[in-house]
Design a protein that fits this description.
Helix content is 36%, strand content 23%. The chain has 223 residues and is α/β, with parallel strands linked by helices.
């Protein structure tokens, strides 16, 4: 039977090491936490900064959540896609220094004038490039962004299940239960369908369509 550990996010939005230490102090007060997922928006850390971060988190298994703010490997503009991949590869390199066990990646949004088949091809292209650089599993997170001009990939249960069929050995899914619920899909049904591909789970509650709420305060039925 597969073992899932309990983890929390650790934010690295910048190089403010005092904030890192404050988070580490807070982590030490939590019971049962076995891993941290480093939310890595700053990918310009030098060797001494990476060593400092690694020492702070020495008591935990480490995963990396790749940067996503302002990025999209799904962009219609190849310049943006390639720049996004370059930044994601820097996150992979930091993960190597931290001895990370996985990296969670957002593919992000594509424009509505791109067909779903084109989006799948763009996703496969990006996943292949990044996974070839990664010594640990590359986990694709399901998203819930949708408007009249752009939509995220993968989003629906069908899209996520379809994506698993093209994943290589070193890739998998980071399933976000809240994102799934926000678009009206059943996360338990999705998990049952793709559980062999799931390497990471994000849990948060949802209230009146608004996600990332504390567990137990909304509609998510979980002990």
């Amino acid at each position: 039977m597969r073992h899932y550990s309990i983890g929390v996010f650790f934010e690295v939005y910048n190089k403010d090491q005092k904030k890192w230490e404050k988070q580490a102090d807070w982590l030490s007060t939590l019971k049962g936490v076995e891993h941290v997922e480093v939310l890595l928006e700053d990918t310009t850390l030098n060797n001494s900064e990476m060593l400092f971060l690694k020492k702070l988190l020495k008591n935990y298994t480490i995963g990396v959540h790749a940067p996503f703010i302002g990025l999209s490997v799904m962009s219609y503009h190849k310049e943006i896609s390639k720049a996004s991949i370059k930044i994601l590869n820097r996150a992979v390199n930091i993960g190597k220094h931290l001895n990370a066990e996985y990296i969670t990646v957002h593919l992000e949004t594509y424009p509505m004038n791109m067909t779903l088949d084109e989006a799948k091809k763009r996703a496969s292209w990006a996943i292949k490039i990044i996974s070839e650089k990664s010594p640990f599993p590359l986990l694709i997170e399901n998203l819930n962004v949708k408007s009249s001009i752009q939509t995220a990939f993968p989003s629906t249960n069908r899209e996520i299940t379809s994506l698993t069929k093209s994943l290589s050995k070193n890739t998998g899914i980071a399933i976000d239960f809240g994102h799934t619920m926000r678009i009206g899909e059943n996360p338990n049904k999705l998990f049952s369908a793709i559980n062999n591909y799931v390497g990471n789970i994000h849990l948060h509650d949802i209230i009146n369509g608004r996600d990332h709420k504390a567990l137990g305060t909304g509609e998510f039925d979980i002990p």
